[in-house]
Specification:
about 180 residues; about 15% strand; about 35% helix; 5 helices; alpha+beta
Length: about 180
């Protein structure tokens, strides 16, 4: 028997069973997949696993300074300044002006004799951390055990009307003659 004839007979045979197979496959798609570990686990194990997946709430104030790895002299004797950074003078946009930032007070610095660069042994002196609110920054400082103070932002200046466009106005009353 030729190969083509075998293929034609096989397709005729499978066409008879295709509705049954498709119904069986559809019912398999509807059944949920169950994890073997979950199906064979004891109820106590499932309860313990559910407890471990939840979040832990601590009712008292948390001080994470002992476990951060920061040396104690950097924690106890430092003051942190919490402030709103000013707008960059090189940019005209007003995006990201509502963030709060923390800075540490300056420690001793010295001039490097080889290149004349200013050096410091303080790892926290150049660290700036941004926060979306003042309360977040205060909470972060309290959790790390740092003393902090808030520097209030200056009052924003009111935007004055720009007069350059009035020079080219078509209104005769406001137009400045060039003669």
């Amino acid at each position: 028997m030729s190969l083509l004839r075998q293929i034609v007979q096989a397709t005729k045979h499978t066409q008879q069973w295709s509705p049954v197979l498709s119904r069986g496959m559809a019912s398999m798609r509807d059944t949920p997949v169950i994890d073997v570990d979950t199906a064979l686990a004891k109820p106590e194990d499932i309860e313990q696993k559910n407890k471990l997946q939840g979040t832990i709430t601590v009712p008292v104030k948390v001080d994470i300074s002992p476990i951060t790895g920061v040396p104690e002299e950097h924690v106890k004797t430092r003051r942190v300044r919490i402030y709103m950074p000013p707008k960059n003078a090189m940019q005209s946009g007003t995006n990201n002006l509502s963030t709060w930032q923390i800075d540490f007070d300056n420690r001793e610095r010295w001039e490097n004799p080889l290149m004349g660069w200013t050096s410091t042994g303080d790892p926290l002196s150049n660290m700036h951390v941004n926060f979306s609110s003042q309360e977040e920054a205060i909470t972060f400082c309290e959790r790390n055990g740092w003393r902090w103070f808030v520097e209030r932002p200056d009052k924003p200046k009111t935007e004055r009307v720009k007069n350059y466009g009035i020079n080219f106005a078509w209104n005769k009353r406001t137009r400045v003659s060039t003669k």
